[in-house]
Amino acid sequence: MRARLLAAGLRDADARTPEASTEGAPGVVVLAEPSALGGPVWPPGGSGRVLVAALPGVRVDPWGLLARGAADVVHLDGDDDLAPVLERLTRWEAVDRLVTSGEVTATSVGTSTRWRDFLRELVEVARFSRSPVLLTGETGVGKEVAARLVHRLDPRRSGGDLVLVDCTTVVPTLAGSEFFGHERGAFTGATAAHEGAFARADGGTLFLDEVGELPTGLQAALLRVVQEGTYQTVGGTHRRRTDFRLVAATHRDLQADGFRADLYHRLAASHLHVPPLRARREDVVPLFRYFLAEQCADGRAPDVVPEVAAALEEREFPGNVRELRQVAARVAARHVGEGPVTPGDLPPEDRPVGSTDGSPDPADRWERGLEGAVRDALRAGVGLKELKARTADVATRAALDIAGGSGAAAHLLGVSRRALDYRTAALERDHAARSTDPSSEASS
Fold first, then answer.
1. Is the four-CA dihedral 315, 319, 321, 326 of positive or negative sign?
2. Dihedral over Cα of 222, 228, 229, 235: its sign
3. Which of 66, 151, 317, 431: disulfide with 162, CB 3.0–4.6 Å?
4. Tens digit of each residue's pLDDT (9 = 90 or more) over 41-67
5. What dihedral angle (degrees, nearest 10) is formed by the CA atoms of 241, 244, 246, 247?
6. pTM for this structure?
7. What angle (nearest 5°) sits at the alpha carbon of residue 93, between those of residues 103 and 122?
8. Of residues 245, 240, 267, 270, the one with CA closest to residue 255
9. Cβ-count burial of 206 within 10 angstroms (0-12 exposed, 13-18 middle, 19+ buried)?
């Protein structure tokens, strides 16, 4: 089987140990017996994806394999049946090429694991599906940028218009005209016919920003248009057809906020969560320089001295990417000449709270954050033993995410590679046990 895979031009991942398959390209693991894979299928934090292909007669636990890092599991009907393997790897390779293409990186800056994972999901949904897309995430994370990327990557819609409607600005009394359009004379002041959003988005994409703010009555009307692909203008006498891709965004929990359940499930056919900036700190400085370049006449961003880079990476940024863009604009207004951005270029309100000698003290920052988390845990009834265990688990996952591999993560934690692999395996066993234990859901 491995020889046939290689002859077909496929990469044999051979991911039997945590050290294997770190190149980042999609690969295949062929299972001839259930016990062939005893450890992680893919190094935690790695950038590649592995497809596990089980030969006929081999019984495997697909959910356990997914929890251990596999991207998918397929059962081969015969030794020569490579179609399932070829199809998935061809798709993954196309997605990976797009993620690193100028079409994506021109507006989507970042190389962190969290951001690349998100981009892979977005690219696959945008290019290879026709479903509506629901983008969720905190304020300022870049949901509009993601929506524009969905439109640009959709080969069926990119030739049409992207019509943006900010639902926070929709006036209930004029909502019908805003979405459906109106005929001349439909109401007082309607001196001319008006095309609504449904008509303007025909052949393209309709982006509803902050869709959770839509009035209940308009939610019902939108659902009908999405289901039937037809609408009627205000004052019109017949229904018109429209064909658009719907992308919606919100920072709210729609299911908990009284949003129509049937419309929610329509919108969430493809649900993508945009990660907050604090989950992708290694992207902060590249994003900062990207925004600085926007402010520079020649489009070239100055370098950033290490002290400023550290201060930016340690900042929490509750306003996420939008807040970072504003910081970059303030710095650009103060920066003079062609030299790097220095501490004095940061306005006083953007400078870190330093220690007594004026230098930033990262220890103070994480200790304050840890104390707050511990207080919350104690109030929730978590004891010292569980606190210690959970803190070690969080540190392990964080080190793997930051370092991108087991060796570097072990160095960060100050433990041996063997000890880290043992803890990682224990984490995976615990995750698998909790995911299959009904009592864990009942008690949560």
1. negative
2. negative
3. 151
4. 554 444 567 888 777 788 888 898 888
5. -150
6. 0.72
7. 50
8. 267
9. buried
- Any idea what DSSP says for residue 327? H
Q: How many CB atoms lie within 10 A of CB 318?
A: 12
pLDDT tens digit sequence for 64-80 = 888 877 888 888 776 55
Note whether 115 and 276 are within 8 A (CB): no
Which range, 118-132, 159-173, 363-377, 388-402, has the best average confidence (pLDDT)? 118-132
| Residue 37 tokens, joined | 């894979």
Sign of the C-alpha dihedral, residues 425, 431, 435, 439?
Answer: positive
Size of the chain in residues: 444
Distance CA 428, CA 39 (A): 9
Q: Which position has the token pair 């019109």? A: 236
Q: What count of other Cβ atoms lies within 10 Å of the Cβ of residue 101?
A: 12
Q: Which of 135, 109, 110 lies closest to 121, judged by CA?
A: 135
The continuous run of DSSP H or E covering 209 comes out as strand 205-209
